[in-house]
């Protein structure tokens, strides 16, 4: 069957994106569908209903990953298209959702043209990619690919004290399809860049070569509450100042190490959090990322040594917990070449680049040929309700996805 003129229906794709965005919609745009909340359930139900309408065979596994499969002319592991539909609290409507909905659009395009591929195709959305409620991020895809044990993931408690296992039951997505051993023929994820490079350059397609390493650490500092007016400075055990110094040091380390090292303090909680009381407890998180594992380890070592020292100087206790740790990942060069070739054949501008954000694709990379396709994010903004990608860029990205999937599915 000649598939060379086949293209996706971009209006249909965007209609679905906008319909999904209504669930958990935020004032001013964007959405909040934190993993395993009622809003997440609403999003899941809608996407699963689309999967059913498209005739996909739906399975749900023990961590709530949902996979819709379309049979091929031969049996075997599917060409899998996937991403996530959970969001951070201040999420945009494209992060993750684009990859899932573009996958459905690929399926519908083939359904309309009555094309059956040789290999099965699957569209998946993975539980808790964001990690904003439950750490680590990429939880569902990590369990799917066996990097994280199912029981360990189910036992995780979130920022609100709720357990993954209970919340999965509550939303009705604790399934029994196997995890850990499921393999795909290959994995492809279309995603918005979430950074400024493509937008600034005016390039349409980011050919993603890999994902940088991610290190998330939580520090809990224990001090002594006392009166802000009467306690001499030399007699304080101030948990808040130690948290503040760790935060400043994280930025200093990133500045000192240069462009490829980034550092973010995203959570700071003080207790009792009152104007005239020395804090007796502080919790902060530090997110460190680098494309180079050795440099990422250096950044961690510097930060941890500094935290130990300032805690000792102030006379407070310090507990350190790893919330997530993923080494940098390289995608298969054949898949990277295929994405680039497919984009160029469609006359699209391309640039090779690493991903700064974590993605479900990185969990597949060690186990099967894996690729990611990026499209521009206006002003490089993401994890923000202002996240936006031009419809024409979505069309371009989804058509590259279609070509890559067709080539892999028929090889
Ligand atoms: C997850 O999406 C991350 O990169 O933080
Ligand atoms: Mn994402
Ligand atoms: Mn995200």
Which percent range fits the helix content? 25-40%
Main β-sheet description: 9 strands, mixed
Strand content: 15-25%
Question: How large is the radius of gyration?
Answer: 22 Å
Low-confidence stretches: none
Q: How many helices?
A: 12
**By helix and strand content, what is the structural category?**
alpha/beta
Bound molecules: glyoxylic acid, manganese (II) ion
- H and E string: HHEEEHEHHHEHEEHEEEHEEHEHEH
Mean of pLDDT: 97
The best one-word shape is elongated
Q: N-to-C terminal Cα separation, in Å?
A: 14 Å
Count of distinct strands: 14
Describe it for me?
The protein is an alpha/beta fold and 411 residues long. Helices cover 36% and strands 20% of the residues. The chain has twelve helices and 14 strands. It has helices at residues 10-21, 38-53, 97-112, 139-144, 150-154, 164-171, 197-201, 239-257, 293-314, 333-345, 361-364, 391-410, and strands spanning 57-60, 66-70, 79-83, 121-125, 186-192, 205-211, 213-222, 262-264, 268-271, 281-290, 317-326, 329-330, 350-355, 370-375. Strands 1, 2, 3, 4, 5, 6, 12, 13 and 14 form a nine-stranded mixed sheet that branches. Helix 3 (97-112) crosses helix 12 and helix 8 (239-257) runs antiparallel to helix 9 (293-314). The relative contact order is 0.18. The mean pLDDT is 97. Bound molecules: glyoxylic acid and manganese (II) ion (2 copies). One manganese (II) ion binds next to loops.
